[in-house]
């Protein structure tokens, strides 16, 4: 769900403009307050609807409501759980106030004696429901499977609001007002930009904890997206799992405590409202609210079966006071039913996310999710290997006609939903919207499709750079797509520098041997400029930092010609194995020399070398979800368990001209976990050793950062190539409090800032043999540039910062605690303290 929400938010950010009233429509406004007839208290979340129309709204936490409609009816209907439905006459006026008093339903609780020590009887009921939660939690099953239908809708809304001072509406709002639209529940125009329907079979096994979704059919229509396999996987049941019997629900990268979880009494207040009849069962209706309005927690009503004390229905909301970025309101409605084994299972789930506007009077976004689960089969686990891959597309998942979708939909579509499905195709073909869609795809993927050629141009991020070695660097990259082949992937680039006047290139051929399990084989040849200490091995997947490293002054540059052959296979149970044979050269453009290994009969100083390496990398990510974007595998991230990577490199002397025999072993672990109301912790640890004697470019160089931007996997106050190690251990730590403190400071809460702390530690050393490899001068008499190494004191930097500034910016204040006076062999003074910026869209 996170990816889809981010895409729709991009629509909202992209279509920012000032709005104006929809032309040609007379608007009627009905407002007022819904109260309890007996107590006079406001009734929150009451449903208000116009009789015979699809327009409607809900009351706020104080019972107040405001409804804007384009067509009048004779009466207003007001409904709330535990109350009789009220009907009130609507007058033919453009503005009117209707205050509503609802009477409690006839179904009442039996006499309950409330004592001072016992408090509200809701606590006794909830205590018993939580105590029995293990009895009804579907997670106690050894396995289960069900047929799933998922529908997702995305809209651009709030563009037809009146502007202050009668100013002329902005061009974007004027354009949106001319697009085909539907009328939402508040009588406002909404432009549909995304509609999807997915039918799948979802499987889960508890021990070991494995899930799998087999996507049978999928239909996707939207601006900037198509019926691609990646979208089909994102719109299925895998990302719509909401189990209120868990201690918390992971939604929009946030862990929200469940009112039926272990923190139920710590986080929430409860009030027994009434008893109601649901599916012929008498249920307690219990209202719950956060103890502190600013806490990231739900508010709403839960129905608990009076006989079994089991969850029957829940209506939960999180509003803007809970400080979720971009979200004005999150609303989850869920029905639970008893299965054959006696557990409770969520059979229908509706989620609505109403985003707030990125700027005042700018358009917003509305996203709706609906999931229905049928034909539940329990306690029949499949073999563990069956659950890999975790998401799989049927070969004919695109092939389904209108009659099929009509047959599989669990409920008939409302008039507005029918209208939205008809309108979205018209919207996506409007020239401006088509351009916006292309910009979205270019921003997300980084490639521009070249139509009938079945190739993509990019990544555009690397198209230009400027540095002291190459001057102006221009690069043209291409890759094939599935229109070219579903087995062969061809890619490469050609680059040229105006100062060094040299061409650089890369050519890669990859062949997909199998999609289940995912197995590929490939070869690559590259010739390009590199720099010591900033290589693809330590930059990782940080493409933005890799592009930045091509700019400015490049110290210790060298040319490298690389030939690589590799084989990668998903082994199941979260294991991915890669085996590669790599041959690469080192041609320095700076004074460099090394003493050959003692086994080499030629002891002449050398400035160039060649190395052939056999590489084995084992990656273990037990709960990682892998998606397939055409011919490329994409990670949707790990949820609860760490990711381990073990990499072993063996240098092969005299193989393909290799000059060295050496070994390198490195192990890393990455993980994140929730610390309750204190926020979320992210950390990684790593260690490695090179028990061989080799030139220092083959040793471990931690990634420094000389930019003004904060880089997550770098030491942000360490210079490039400041330290070298042949044995090392690292710890990188970050804890984000998620607004724990700022939410409690008047005036700061509305800014939605999040406070965080960071720490990074590196310990390491270099053997005396590797120190002795570097001579004082080379064969030309030039002084050889050496390197610095750590002593017994580790390198330490700590920081504190604020993110979510203007919803996209982050500011980090970082202190370097050790080696504050170190200049070393880099010749660049260190910075003991710095303020660094970064930015991304997060929740």
Automatic annotation (TrEMBL):
Domain of life: Bacteria
Cited InterPro entries: CarboxyPept-like_regulatory (IPR008969), DUF5686 (IPR043741)
Region forming the signal peptide: none
Name of the protein: DUF5686 family protein
